[in-house]
Amino acid sequence: MFKVMALAAGLFCAALLPVSGARAQAITDDHVVIAHRGASGYLPEHTLPAVALAYGMDPDFIEQDVVMSKDGVPVVMHDIHLDTTTDVAKKYPKRHRKDGRFYAIDFTLAELKTLNVHERVDAKTGKQVYGARFPLEYGIFKIPTFEEEIKLIQGLNKSTDRDIGVYAEIKDPAWHRSEGQDISKAVIKVMEKWGYGTRESNGYIQCFDWNETKRIRNELKYQGRMVQLLGENSWKIAPNVDFDFLKTDEGVGEMAKVVDAIGPSLDQVISGLSEDGHAVMTPTLVAAQRRHLPVHVYTLRADQLPAWAGDFRIVMTAVFDDAGIDGVFTDFPDQVVDYLAATPE
Ligand code: CA
Questions:
Q1: CA triplet 42, 47, 49: central angle to 5 degrees?
Q2: Could you read off the pLDDT of 109-120 as tens digits, one per residue?
Q3: Which one-letter DSSP state was computed for residue 322?
Q4: What is the pTM of this model?
Q5: Domains of the chain
Q6: pLDDT tens-digit map of 159-199
Q7: What is the C-alpha separation between 90 and 94, in angstroms, rounded?
Q8: Which of 31, 46, 78, 81 is catalytic?
Q9: How many angstroms is it from 64 CA to the middle of ligand 1?
């Protein structure tokens, strides 16, 4: 009898223990942790080491921002410009445009691969944006292609028996088209090739350009999960998109017909704390929750807190416990995963 019970216990443990990722996913089941640009709080954003480090922190997804090379290869970079995260100005001093900026789309993949990636600097001052992060002078990293990054994630999914997902943002699709490249088609092609073409697959496509989101769904017939990102009209990031409308109850209703979740900024969902210290939710958040439209908020940074929060824990409590927000983009996935693991659902 004891032997049978021990065997049963052993089987039970075997079913639970080896799959540490499955455990972490169970803990954060109701909350989606997206490693923003990899573990970008600790290593330069969108480098493969930052992806590997993020992976080890057990997020649900790792985020990719995608732009195109001159020869039509989707690469993982946040900006259409190269000068704030690479040494392009040193290696190719004459290859800037009239505005003084260096554009990824003016360089072939082979040329992009010669660049070293470093911590982000301010385009105007040249100073490191987040001073306490990885030293700027250690620019020992390379730009990955979108496929290389997926290979790293899927390879780790195999070797660690987990299923951490891919969460790709299509950057400036209208601008890419004006430069002769259809970035949405290129990203969809890679997503579908690697198994992220259905709602059951562990992937998302996100975009700020609402017109492009509708095109991806309705014209390009992408069947995977999609997120509409919300910006502000003053940022001028998506031509002919009225974010003031999208933030209204009616706008949220329109988005709910097309996408699986929305990605607002923290300011757009929590306006501050009440006198008794709880998050004050915005009408946009209330509208999304009324429609059961999941909200993935950007960006939770331990080293850049909103004015109303004295420490990072206050932000996480406001987001998850007070506001009931479904998911977060964070530069510090380890701290969010730890917080959620320690907090009863
Ligand atoms: Ca992004």
A1: 65
A2: 999 999 999 999
A3: I
A4: 0.91
A5: 2-79+143-342 (3.20.20.190)
A6: 999 999 999 999 999 999 999 999 999 999 999 999 999 99
A7: 9
A8: 78
A9: 7
